[in-house]
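Notes from the 1:1 (GR / supervisor)

We went over the backlog. Supervisor wanted to see one worked example end to end before approving the batch request, so GR pasted a single chain during the call. The sequence is below; no edits were made to it. Supervisor asked that the structure be written out right there so they could see what the output format looks like.
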Amino acid sequence: MTQVIRDGMLSHAVLVERLLAIDEAGRLLGPHRHAAARLARVPVSTVTRWLWQAATNPRPEPLPPARDGG
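Structure output shown during the call:
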């Protein structure tokens, strides 16, 4: 599980996941990227790069939890 908050900052994976969901709805605007950058304490260009990377290299769907042998 991704650690959501560390040292007062949101995980970039969580931010990217939420921004991509907004983008899929066709509502991603500049202020969303600026707010995400403030929350992650990085430049807006970094958030834009994260989004570009996530769009070009989507993560595989997580596997379901393994079952015990019983």
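Supervisor's comment: The CA atoms of residues 20 and 51 lie 7 Å apart.
Batch request approved.
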